[in-house]
Structure formats: C-alpha cells, structure tokens
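INTERNAL AUDIT FORM
Audit reference: QA-55
Scope: verify that the stored structure record matches its stored sequence.
Auditor: D.O.
Record contents follow.
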Amino acid sequence: MGNRPDLPMTRIRPGRGWVLLDLPELWACRELLYFFCWRDFKVRYKQTLLGMTWAVLSPVGFTVIFVVIFGKLAKLPTDSLPQPIFYMTGLVVWGYFSKAFLATSQSLVTGGTLMTKVYFPRLLVPISTCVVGLVDFAIAFVVLVGLFLYFGIFPPLTSLLLPVLLLQALLTALGFGLIFGALNVRFRDVRNLVPFIIQFWMYASVVIPFSHVPQRYGPWRYLYGLNPIGGVVEGFRWCLTSHLPNATVEPPWLLVATGLPVTLLALVVGLLYFRRVERQLADIL
C-alpha cells in the first residue's frame, strides 16, 4: 500500500545538542514507564519458590552475617546501637542501591530485543529498574521497623527525612548505572566488573561508622562523604536513632552535602554518555 498523503508522518531523529532530558517526551510516555515497572516486577519473582520473601531474606541474612563476623568476632564499633539495628539499618538502603545499580547497568543489554524493534524513549528502561526496586525497599523497611519495635525503639520525627536520602540513593544508582550500562553495551565484560565494585562499595559504606574516622584528620575526615552512599547510610541511621540517649551517630548533613555533587556529577555524565550511545543502540545491540 502506498503512502497516504492524508495521514501524518513522524520522523524520528537522534537528539542533538546538550539537552540531557526530553521531559515532554518522557511525560508523554509515562504509561509505558508504568508498564516497564510492572513487567520488571513480575519477571523478578516469576517462577520463584519464595517470591517476594527474597526482599526480606537478603537484608536479614546479611545482618546475621555482619553481626557474627564484624560484631561478635571483629568487635567493630556500632555507634552504641544494638548490632542488628546498626547493620540492618544500613543494609536496607544499601540493598536498594546495589540492586538498582546492578539492574540499571545491565538494563540496556537485557532490553536490547525490544529496543531494536520499536522506538520509545530509551531512558525509560534504566529509570524503570530504579523505580521498581522501591517495592523491595518498602518490604525490607517494614521488617526494619519491626526490628526497631522488637528492641523497644520507636522511630522519631526525623524519620520523615528518609525520602530525601532515598532520593539521593536512587539518583546515585541511576547515574552510575547509566555510565556502566552504556559501557556494557560496547564492552560486555563490564557486567563482570560491576558486582566486584558493589562488593567493595558495600564494605566502604555499611561496616565502618563515620564517627570512628579519626578526629585527627579534622575537616578532611568529611572526605568520607565523597562516597555518596556512605552519607545516605549514615543519614538513615541518624534519622532513625537520633533520639536515643547513648547513640553516637553524628548528624549526616555535611556528609550528604559532600556526596551530593558526586551524585549530580555521575548523573550528568551518565546522561551525556547515555545520549551518545543511544544513537547507536539499535546497531550495536
């Protein structure tokens, strides 16, 4: 059938310039984002024996391991907090970040079949992997609240600041996920590098409290905050335990402010590199 002059024709061209986000296009495709999130959620637990229980087993299992190894054997400090509280508070938000970062770094390759067949804003794929991880976080956070109640600890009003910290974790995962995801399109061995980075990053963020970075370093000790997730983890602990009289968790906001430029830089670099690779995705994949 020949061209119909009475039908509109849409030409799709690669984006140009320094515009990082086409917000009108993303908003127009918001229902597709919901579809991707729902698809990822179903695929994650399809044909699994325990289903969503895995969202609980992961932080609980790591908490038990950390309490035994780092708490009982190594006797590392926990800011005068009960060891399960100290470790699980960090592991809940860390678990969200690590899963979102890993899934985002692999999302372009795993979604390659769809990308080569139909056009849609490619950025929806990595964004959906970060958003759907919030479901697991919510489940694990409910278990964390139950652990607090078991120890007779009631979260204070500062807990209302947790969404701000969670947003920074999401943006950090998206930024670094875009960088490594775009690299993974060109160099498939990047997928083997990311789990190694995550393991190292976990020990640097969850195990050692900032309060035990030596005071002799003065203001330089706040370079700890250049690890943006370190500030987020410290923030979660402070927001949930700041009312306890014996807790030595320091207010995290200087750490968060130190890590925020790193988060924004990773996000900008990730978006720029993603836009560059996006023009060739169909050919490479």
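Auditor finding: record pair retrieved intact. The chain has one domain: 51-284.
Action required: none
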